[in-house]
Amino acid sequence: MNTNDAIEFFNELDDNEQLNNHVRPGARKEKHPLRNPKKVPLSVQKFVQAQDDSKGSFKFTYKAARFEEWWLLDSLGGFYEHKWITDVLRRVKGGKEASVYQCRSGVEVDAPLVAAKVYRPRSLRNLKNDQQYRVGRVDLGEDGNALVKSGDVHAIAKRSSYGEGLRHQSWIAYEFKTLELLYEAGVDVPKPYAMEKNAILMGFVGGIDTSAPALSTVALELDEAKSLYDRVVRNIDLMLTHNRIHGDLSAYNILYWEGDITLIDFPQVVLPESNPASWNIFLRDMTRICQYFSSQGVDCDGRKLATELWLSHGHKVVKEVDPRYLDAEKPEDRQVWEEQK
Ligand SMILES: Nc1ncnc2c1ncn2[C@@H]1O[C@H](COP(=O)(O)OP(=O)(O)O)[C@@H](O)[C@H]1O
Ligand SMILES: [Mg+2]
After folding, report:
1. N or C: less crowded end of the chain, CB within 10 Å?
2. Statement: 215-340 belongs to CATH 1.10.510.10
3. pLDDT single digits (tens) 92-112
């Protein structure tokens, strides 16, 4: 892949965020001129693997930005082929790590809409912070099972190009396997349907025209704030019962729709007993949660809550949040830092 082309493509994705956030009526199944492979730069053709016949019939309503269409055909073609989706309707959110698309479900799905989270190619993903979460996690392969071949394990440790591909895959597999585990356990997460090498498919939270907003953007009445706070705490408690810490929990990763909440965004999930930084990470999650609910008038103390939950699951409280785990660009993290000083 020509990195410059791909970077340009993803910059375009960011620039077109506003433009592409709406379904354009009448845009359905138009032939896109860029579908003609002769016009696609060679670098992009290499970037997207050859489509087989069934994937080749995959066309969608969503008017994709320049190179985005190939990226989607490549990432979502398998879901189409296996009848998980029939159409891509719109992009819900583009991000540095992944973009989320609203799709119309295929016959394999028991709901009208699904959300496809499509990861950026690993070379354009921001991997700077993933090391802390990977500690104590076995790496998972494309099928969601632990990688056992010593060659694979070695390649990841060596950070060879092949190893980096496996590492990227493992990151995605963790998100999917965590959704499976937690959904089964009754945690409020989207229902997981399928995983491909670069994307996961899950229940869509929201309606046909609007996706659910993040809780961080919602102002709640006090009664509702209190009951949602209890609900979030019950979810976190249940996650600890199943030996999982979200790892990036805040009101930004909780969706709010018709009075219900849904926890999302799990690739960095942490296993409490295996990661020496797990208390730090858990405390940070709880602090961020309490920052939001305090702003909504709920009386809560992140440290107290974290300590109670943590001890009740038989874990030991170790030390303060290590500054390495705080992001200087996030105001909520700066607050944690200030409180600790
Ligand atoms: N299942 C879903 N249903 C509806 N919208 C979703 C769903 N999952 C994610 N989103 C939207 O996509 C955004 C990014 O998803 P997220 O998993 O948090 O990825 P990121 O790593 O980019 O933060 C969310 O803030 C939300 O707006
Ligand atoms: Mg997120």
Report:
1. C
2. yes
3. 998 778 999 999 999 999 999
